[in-house]
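Handoff note, outgoing to incoming analyst
You'll be picking up this chain. Sequence as last confirmed:
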Amino acid sequence: MVSVPEQTVTRGQNTKVEIFLEFRQQMMGTNGNNNHSKNKKKKNNKRGGTKKRMTVEQSLAYKSVSEWVYLDTIPSSANSAIAIDDDFKVKLVHTKVSAEKLVFELHSHSICSDGFLSPSKLVERAHQYGVKVLSLTDHDTMAGIPQALEAARRVGIKIIPGVEISTIFTPRTESGSEEPVHVLAYYSCCGPANFQKVDEFLGNIREGRYLRAKNMISKLNKLKLPLRWENVEKIAGDGVAPGRLHVARAMVEAGHVENLKQAFSRYLYDGGPAYSTGSEPDAEVAVKLICETGGVAVLAHPWALKNPVAIIRRLKEAGLHGLEVYRSDGKLAAFSDLAETYDLLKLGGSDYHARGGNSESALGSVSLPVVAVHEFLKVARPIWCGAIKNTVDRYVSDPTESNLQHILRYAKIKLAKNGVTLLNHNVELIRECLSQWLTDEEQKSGNFEVIRGDLENQGGGCDCEAII
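Most recent structure output, in case you need it:
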C-alpha cells in the first residue's frame, strides 16, 4: 500500500501550498468504510489538535505515481493533479483522476507456482482488498501473467509482470556456506526484452525443481515418512514445477505433520533433514540476466538470509536495484540502513500465497511510502522504456509475425484468430501499444518517432490482422 507520511502545516505559512494540501487530504480521506479515519478525526478535534498534511515532496510523488497507474486509461494531458510554478510552489489544476489510496502489492503467488489461487482469482482478491497495482511474482515462471492481465483489465488493476527467481549464493571464502537466495524481477508491460532467453533460463530452474522435489521425497522416505511422487505432482497441478510447499501439503495430507508450519520447521527448512537443492543458478548470474533483459532486480526477504551483508554487497556489484525492506509489520530498520549504504531501492510486498491462517500477511497489507514507490518508478521506467524500445527495434529489423507477437504478448491488443480486422496496419498496432505503456515524453525521449517512421517506410512489415 502506498502510504503518505504526514507533517503538520501551520496556517498562513504558504497559502497556495496549504490550500492544495487541504484538498489532497480531503481527497485521500474519501473512503466509504474509513471509520477509523473518521474516529481519529473526531479525537483530534476534541483535543484541539491540528490536522496533519502531506509534504510537498509527498504530494509531487503521489502525482507522478498516480499518472503512471492510470496511464493506460486516461490521456496524459488530462491526468495532471498538480503542477509547478516558476517559484516551485504547488498549484491546483484540473484533474480527471480522483486522489485515492494507491495500494501496491509487489510480491504475490498463484497456483502457477506455490500459491493457492489461480492468477485470475488472485487479481479478483487483490481488487477486493483495494490493490491498484499488483505484481504476480510466481517462482521461476511467468506463465500466469497473461491470465492475471486479462482479469486485471476487467477490474481495473495495473499489472507489473514479475517473477521470483530461485538462486544459490556461493561465498568466495571457504569459511562461508552456500545458501538459497530469491531475486524478484519486475518487467515492463511488454515483458522481458528477450523473452526467449528468460523463458529458457527459468525452464532450466523448473526442471531442477522436479529433481529437487523427488530428492526431498526420498529423504522423507528414509526418515520413515513415506510419500508418493504422484501425490505431490497432483497437489502441484499440471505443468507446475513442485516446490517445498507442495511437498509440505503432501506431508499434511499423509498425516506426518499437523500443518505446513510444522512441515517446514521440522523437515523442510533450509538445511533441514529433508531439504534439497535443485539446479538453481548463481545469484549474481540471475541478477545480471534480469538487468540484461530490461528488468528491475530486487532481493526478496533478505531477513531470511544467514549472511545478508555479503550477499547484498555482491549482488549490488552484479546490478541489484533494490531489496525488500517493508513488511506488513512495518519497516525493518537494519535492512533500510543497508539499502541506504548500498544505494538500493526500498521496497516490499506481502509474499502472499493465500494459505490462510494468521501466519500469512494479507494481500496489499504492506504500506509502502509514496516516496519509495516514486523512487522505484524513477529507476524502473527508463529501464522499461529501453526494454520496450529494444523489443520494437527487433521487429523493425525483422518484421516477422513472431516478433510482432512478442510486442503484443502482454498487450490489450491481440493478433486475430478469426480474421476480424479492426486495426489495418502493424504501425497502428504498435502505436496503440506504446500509448498504453509510455507517456508522450517517454516516447519522445526513446526516439519512438524514428521507429514509427521506419515502420511506415517499410509498409509495416507482415500484414497481420488484429483485434482489440
